[in-house]
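Field notebook, page 321. I keep forgetting to write these up properly, so this time I am using the form the group agreed on. The chain and the ligand, tryptophan, are recorded exactly as supplied. Prediction of the bound pose follows.
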Amino acid sequence: MRVLSGIQPSGELHIGNYFGMMKPMIEYQERSELFCFIVNYHAMTSVSDSQRLSRGTIEVALDFLSLGLDPEKSIFWVQSDVPEVTELTWILNNVTPVGLLLRSHSYKDKTAQGIAPNHGLLSYPVLMAADILLYQGEKVPVGKDQQQHLEITRDIALKFNATYGETFVIPEAEINPNIPMVVGIDGRKMSKSYDNTIEIFCEEEVLKEKIARIVTDSTPVAAPKDPDKCNLFINISLFLEEHEKAALAERYRGGGLKYSEVKKELFSRMWEYFRGAREKRKNLAKDLDQIRKILRAGAEKARYRAAPTLAAARKRVGLVY
Ligand code: ADP
Ligand code: TRP
């Protein structure tokens, strides 16, 4: 099974990104053929600061590699190192109805927020379709917010196949119901756009301060508390074994529990959980040329896989004469 997914290089990695996307993705390398790439062309639709884009690309590569992505077991690269994807985007543009793109939720949300849309933003789903179809991706693990983009990809692939003959595998989204929706320090979904995130690789003091800011209710210490309604409990559960979680839930229900103690416990659990990755990341960051080498080697492999599909698509539409 060929599993494929992309991540935007758009900011410091938080525990929502890790548990919601990165960890499940990395686990695929053990049981599937994993294609994992950093979508810097896509990020151009929201990042216009060139330094931020190039730095963000290296940072997310460091995140993936330090958290366990193995470039020997997977194909890991930067989207723009395989520029063939833009050629396929152009080909696919010609079977993509504009109405389909205008109905995209993410396009509508962004324009509703007052962002002046450019063509890149409208065309975002076509580039994403090219990402998936170029490598004949079969399964695409994504968050619920990306489900519509996957439907657009399928529509485009079906239309191409119907117009020009069978060329592309029709991919399927995989939305895993077991993947947690991580809550932020204010109790809403953790997201950079809500400024409520807990970053994985921040400094120790910053992490303590973030955890101290997790919003809890004002139930008196002695009173019983409901763990399932507590942001803190939901967050610490990510780092606990089932039996530890049950024991902590008992302490909540029994009364006498101080949130400040749970916060201390969350800090030490999280600090410990990411200790190995933090050290690995520090080491990897000492030699960024080595990271670039890994990414370029990944791009070579990806390019090799992309070549027959692009050649077939070019032939189908009549670009070969
Ligand atoms: P943000 O909302 O912080 O901007 P992104 O939209 O860049 O995060 O998300 C990147 C990936 O991380 C997506 O695949 C998404 O499914 C996952 N993700 C982000 N926030 C969470 C969360 N709070 N819980 C679970 N998964 C999340
Ligand atoms: N649009 C996706 C997101 O914002 C990122 C992405 C780009 C992607 N190309 C992809 C995801 C191909 C899966 C497959 O999260």
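OBSERVATIONS:
- The two ends are 34 Å apart (CA to CA).
- Residues 8, 10, 16-17, 20-21, 142-143, 181-182, 189-193 surround adenosine-5'-diphosphate (ligand 1) (CB under 6 Å).
FOLLOW-UP: compare against the apo run.
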